[in-house]
Write a structure and sequence with these properties.
By secondary structure, the protein is of the alpha+beta class. 24% of the residues lie in helices and 22% in strands. The strands form 3 sheets. It has a 4-stranded antiparallel beta sheet with strand order 2-3-4-5, with no helix packed on it. Strands 1-6 form a two-stranded antiparallel sheet. A two-stranded antiparallel ribbon has the order 7-8.
Amino acid sequence: MRRFLRHHRLPCHRRLLLCRISFGFPLRSFQTAVGPSLQLQREFRTYRLTDLFRVYGSDSWRFGERFVLNYGLAWSYEPNSLNTFLSKPKLLNAILGPDINPPMAQLTNIASIVGLVWTPTHDNKTVVRAGAGRYFDPVSFNSIALANERRALFPAGTGLRTVPGSSISFQGRALDFTRSGPTSFSAADLLAILPATRADLTQQLNPENRDFSFRNIDLDKTGSNFI
C-alpha cells in the first residue's frame, strides 16, 4: 500500500479514501511484539559468548617426480554453541519425539582433506590437480536459529515476545482467519483493540523470571528452530 501511494501521486482526498477502503478489508492474520529487543543469552548474560577450538594437521608425500599426495585432518569443538543447558518441555513430545533432553556439544566434528597433484609431462608444463574434503561450518554461524530456540524455551515473560494472532483471543476466537476465510473482522477493528491487546501482553512480561518450569512456549504455544 505504501509503495503504491509513493509511486502513484494521487490527490490527498483519494489517498485517504484508499486507506479507508484498505482498513475495511477483512483481516487475514497478523502478529505483534512486546518487550526488549535484546536477544536472550546463556545464563541471562547481556553479551553473546562464542568459543571455537580447532586442531589441524597436514602433510605431503611425494611419489617419484610426478606425483604429490597432500592430506590433512582437523577436529573442531564448540562447547557453548548449541543450547546445551535447555531441555524441552513435554509440550513438544508430539513434535520432537520422546527425547527432549538438552542437545550435546558435538564431539565428532572431524574434517578431512586429500589432494593429488600429477605432472604427466617431463617439461612440467601440464599439471593435473584433484582433491576432496569435508568441512564443518561453526554452529555459531546459526546464531539466529539458536536465539529463536532460547526465546521459546526461556522462562515465561522474558525476552522479546512475538505473538501471532492465532495466540490472541477476541470474543471467543483467535485472531487468525487463514483457514476460515474472510470474516467481518477488519483491519480497522484490529487497530481499535490493538492498544489494549498490547498493554495486556506487556503486563505479562517478567524480565527477572528465572523459573524454567513454565516457559514462553507454554504461554504462547508457538516457537521455532528447535534442535
